[in-house]
Amino acid sequence: MELRILHYFVAVAEELHFGRAAARLHMSQPPLSRAIKQLEADVGALLFVRSPTGVMLTPAGTLLLDEARALLDHADRVRVRVSAAAGVATMTVGMLGGGNDPAVSRLAAAYRRHHPGIDIRIRDTDLTDPTCGLRAGLVDVALTRAPFDETGLTVRVLRTDPVGVVLRADDPLARRDRLRLVDLSDRRWFQFPPGTDPVWQSYWNGGRPREGPVVRAVQECQQAVLWNGTVGLAPLGHDLPAELAAVPLTDMAPSRVVAVSNEGDTNPLIRSFIEIATVAYRH
Description:
alpha+beta
């Protein structure tokens, strides 16, 4: 069994859908299906029960999933140890305001267990660069939020969070249980500086041009709401000052938490980081 095919198998087993697994692996579905069928022939057992809505693991598939993860993990450790033998291995992780997310703590603990000898450096970034310095070559991998221009990047979705509008607590709209974007059409919204990724800017402006103060950091966004009555969007579930309130938006696409690396990057440290992050954010 080739490690590449086991990597394909794990993706299908985790997604339970060939289409989603193919998208995650950045390949088309037919060769992925052929690879899984060949793997089933090699092991002499059916690994998935297929249906129009997806797949389910068979008992044999469940067993192989545990073994495949262990084999891939061991292969990554071997690569890392060989790399480390040539010098101190380091990796720089860019983060976009996610340091307080419990999933980050789970990820850090799990990564230390898997790679205790790796020097991890964290680069906090503001809201003007959703790739956290990845495009500029300042980091090796990024924990951030989509959407943004993904050209030349590999993006793994870790979680989706509902989005709400942040208002002053004394704003009449703050008393509502939920809102729609049209309810905010006459408000001023915070903006990012000129040159910011337009896909990123459009998402946080609800998909249309807006006017309002320019901000760079989360704290500046909150202060713009507090002092000027500006409105802005934010993922729900995060603590806000008592003077602010978040109301769910019913017609806003969720915010995707993603791990991002440069397309074609084969560094085993980065691959391992993304795989461990996928598990850490699932719990």
